[in-house]
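hey m, so remember when u said the tokens were messed up on ur end? i reran from scratch. heres the input so u can diff it against urs
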Amino acid sequence: MRVLVFNLGSSSLKFGIFDSALADNRIFKGEFADFQGEGCTLRYRVGGEHAGEYTRREAAMDLPGAIARVPAVLAEFGYAAFGALGHRVVHGGEWFQGATRIDAEVIARIEQCATLAPLHNPLALLGIRAAMALWPTLPQVAVFDTAFHHSIPDYAHTYAVPTLWRERGLRRYGFHGTSHHYVALRVAEALQRPLAELRLISCHLGNGASVCAISHGRSLDTSMGMTPMEGLVMGTRAGDVDPGIFAFLAREFGLDAAAVEQQLNGASGLYALTGTADLRHIEQRATSGEAQAQLALQLYAYRVRKYIGAYAAAMGGLDAVAFTGGIGENSADMRRRICERLEFLGLYLDGDRNRAPVLDNFAAPAIHALDSRVRVLVTQTNEQYMIAREVGLLLEPLLLEPQLLEPQSPQPNAVQIPVATSARHVHLSQNAVEALFGAGHHLTLERHLSQIEGWAAVETVELIGPKNSFSKVRVLGPVRPQTQIEISHTDTFTLGIDAPLRDSGVLDNTPLIRLRGPAGEITTPGLIVAARHIHLNTSDAERFGLCDGDRVDVKLAQGERAVSFANTLVRVKDTYVSEMHIDTDEANAAGLAQRTWGELLLPPRTPRGRGNQPA
């Protein structure tokens, strides 16, 4: 599958074509930049990462003009045909926890999030709308910087502020998630260790900068917060400041909140300290003895070092630190400054290796000393590749990637299927919806799921058992004839209620459970531990020789330990997206920290009668 990727910045358009059938999969790389006068500069590379880079002037005078030129540029080099478009979107708020196919409702949500990322989301929308006009029939997918950080626990993402503020979305979201995710996968590959057993700190240091604690494959915490302004000192952003400065500056200078926000976002950071946001110039001036430049370097390094120490404590230890981004990749002096005084963690740099790491072809060289317990690596980030990868996983999940970053790649001739973990959730009948949310109420779509027939609703309910309860359990739409509540076996101990292991839709003789919503509560049967199952679209089922109702074994070997799931039900339907679903207990047993691949063991060892199974 070929995917076109768009990444719009304030003064540039980066775009590329990725072909997942090739090992060297970025077959075209382009960037429109340096808009001035009557045109701009186009930098491009054709034929993979090893190809030469060329530059020429183009007539496009602004970003809309550059976008309009993309089809002609791609056609010039023979890349006019591709199957989907992926767009980088900085802020997805609480709505988007993964790559999402774009429609009018998704665009509206991205617009709502623009108040949280006013410098970024409007640019993404510009690219989305222009691309939809240029390629109206092709699927387009949004990949969100915030999505990777949805695993951050509530005690790490919650601000201790009034309830009304939190209800309006005030919380830590985090950014650079696509970059941090890539770095985590790349480090695990370089260390030849499963990502699920590593405690990593990813330092994305550029004009925008953030640090992310990645514990066993999941984002545990990150330095950026509700907006990209919190955390580290950056090129023009202040990073962490006392919120009391808003009142102080209003009293002292008569500045309103918008003016203060503009200054903190666009005229602070390294720029405020030195008059420039370019670290290379600051390092040169510091070498010549300029005190303000030296202070800026010390402040920048101190803030990063402080977060590394805090996140090592939060994770209960540290296995590796990785540097990426323009500063992280190119400034040996800044890496040295940051790593100073981290010896108490067992982290020691090798001066020679740090001075000259070779980063060609997205290598991830180690720069730690041989006796360092904590590994230190440097790598180029590859956000466009990750965007193309997410698009492929969403739209064509059975597609085998020749360059998987997980430590254990699929066997080239194996039958592979993506495996996703399903958390506890509820399917409601319309009668139950109205009892819980009010007469005449209809479920409201929050986001689409990988199975196009289902979607996550805005509504949540409380599950109440004899011992304990679970709040804010997601309702999935559309409504069903019967209410069904799916939990894990571990959840049954918390609730104090036994639930049978059942295929979805098999609800006879299931226990009663209380559900509470804002308008009332009900007691209903339908509580089950959902049996693992595989969704197969008809064409994939025919290719694998499987029918609806078959049972197969699936081997997972990309977590902390390999496991095989036997007797897994196969469901076949034209509209299904091929994917295996397991619950959280099964994912934990396999040591899985993220979406992964499973190997179908064919022919099935325990075939079963074929026929329609309950949906």
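this time it looks ok to me. Residues 291-315 form the longest helix (25 residues). if urs says something different then somethings off w ur setup not the seq
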